[in-house]
UniProtKB/TrEMBL annotation:
This is Pimeloyl-ACP methyl ester carboxylesterase. GO terms for molecular function: catalytic activity. It comes from Zhihengliuella flava. Gene3D superfamilies: alpha/beta hydrolase. It holds the Pfam family Abhydrolase_6. Residues 3-222 form the AB hydrolase-1 domain.
Amino acid sequence: MDVILIPGFWLSGDSWNAATGGLEASGHRCLAMTLPGKESPIASRHGIGLRTHIDAVVDVLDSVDGPVSLVGHSGGAVIVQGAAEARPEKVGRVIYVDAIPLPDGGVINDELPASGCSLPLPAWDVFEEADLRDLTPELRDQFRLMAVPEPALVATEPVAVSNPARLGIESHVIACEFTEEQIRSWMEAGVPETAELAQLDDLAIHELPTGHWPQLTRPAELGDLLARIVGTKA
């Protein structure tokens, strides 16, 4: 099976390198994407928004035989959500890594400090302590070196979902900062941010306790968990 991996903000496809071994050993082909405007620190990000990134993933979906597994980390979760909405017949499962799909009209994050049409990786004190769990000084330096600015419009362009077929796709959340019990309690309480999650017909939640970047802090464990979710290639 093809497994398409979408990085979160400030990361390129290379950020998945240490977490794909388990998938490849199970016979799957990993397609870790570097999204438009994130090819290098000096890449143009003018006019690139959420729809641009979703369309880039849809183009890859159209180029491969389905069904595929879509994996989205952090802000990349909304991108795989949008791709699954556009091509539900091509997607066997969606895996959200320390993130959840957003309800129609939601935005990823409209509070990040922008510099023109870019969102540079901010200072660490912008993040909550739970985000930074296990992100050692050495890993923070590594993150800084690999970081590329995010196109600002990706963070603020509203999500648009309406295709009911998306709700029947097998879905998984890998929860790093919260427990399954917490997430399900929010769903049951009707917390608005979990409205889309609560509508999914086939949802499993897996715990991987660490900070917000498990592909950096616990890459082997993340890779093994992804391999178990995707399964052994027939």
